[in-house]
Specification:
Layout (H helix, E strand, L loop, with lengths): L1 E6 L12 E4 L3 E5 L8 H5 L3 E3 L5 H4 L1 H9 L7 E5 L1 H10 L13 E2 L2 E2 L1 E5 L6 E3 L2 E7 L7 E6 L4 E4 L10 H4 L5 E7 L7 H7 L4 H8 L7 E5 L6 H11 L6 E2 L5 E3 L1
Parallel strand pairs: 3-4, 4-5, 5-8, 12-13, 13-14, 14-15
Antiparallel strand pairs: 1-2, 1-16, 2-3, 6-7, 9-10, 10-11, 11-12
């Protein structure tokens, strides 16, 4: 399995794109602005989109992707999310006001896009690649994902704050190799992190103390202008765990 980071930033800029991860050539985890850097042929190969939650930085390129390639494909793109997230997409995005409802274009029997409801703990098997939603704790209904190739696994927390429900699951994954976890704010903005249900260095380090597995740790969702500071603060309190900054175009093979 090959996993490529298309975007992992808390915002946009010349070298920054919001959250999106490409698995092999056909699966996306979230569809932030990083999807816009893919070539048309790469976009055509995407069959599955797994959404962590409904915030714009994680879904913004679903409409453009479906609009661009829908008429060129022989089958619909499947969007997987919890029922609460799908309800938000239907009501507030694919509603004919913000964007067309591509589950009914060109018609309901031959749509460009379809929805698939998923639940925490449910394993979706895509040709031996197993993807399972994990609990997250954010201001809207959210999940993270366990991605298991069979040889090794990666956990992506998605957007979350303190999350006691996650770690008992993570600590039982026998082949866990990588953990991608967020830190959206520097320590000075801890109160904003708490209100918006994100992590900052002290909250993150408290979470990492709950991790019993020895894994490679990567930090995502860092904000422009304070990413270096946030990473320095994290490295002070989690030095022994050697957390690293996740970077755009980073490739994991496992």
């Amino acid at each position: 399995m090959k996993l490529r980071i298309l975007g992992c930033s808390g915002g946009i800029g010349s070298d920054s794109d919001t959250t999106s991860i490409l698995i092999d050539s056909d699966v996306l985890i979230d569809a932030g602005t990083g999807v816009g850097n893919l070539a048309l042929d790469e976009l055509l190969h995407i069959d599955h989109i797994f959404v962590t939650h409904s915030h714009l930085d994680h879904i913004v390129f679903i409409p453009f992707l479906v609009d661009t390639v829908g008429c060129m494909r022989q089958k619909p793109i499947t969007v997987y999310a919890t029922q609460a997230t799908l309800d938000t997409l239907k009501q507030h995005l694919f509603n004919w006001h913000i964007w067309p409802d591509f589950t009914k274009i060109p018609d309901a029997h031959n749509p460009y896009m379809r929805y698939e409801t998923i639940s925490e703990g449910e394993v979706i098997d895509l040709s031996g690649r197993k993807i399972m939603p994990l609990p997250a704790n954010h201001v809207v209904p959210s999940v993270g994902y366990l991605i298991d190739s069979g040889n090794a696994s990666l956990v992506f927390t998605g957007d979350t704050t303190t999350n006691d429900a996650l770690w008992p699951i993570v600590n039982t994954i026998h082949n866990l190799k990588y953990l991608i976890i967020e830190a959206a704010f520097c320590e000075k903005k801890k109160e904003i992190a708490i209100r918006s249900k994100h992590l900052c260095p002290s909250l993150l380090c408290a979470e990492l103390k709950k991790l019993t597995s020895k894994v490679e740790i990567y930090i995502t969702h860092l904000r422009q202008g304070e990413a270096d500071l946030t990473m320095r603060e994290i490295q002070v309190c989690a030095e022994k765990m050697n957390p690293r900054r996740l970077m755009k175009n980073h490739i994991f093979e496992f």
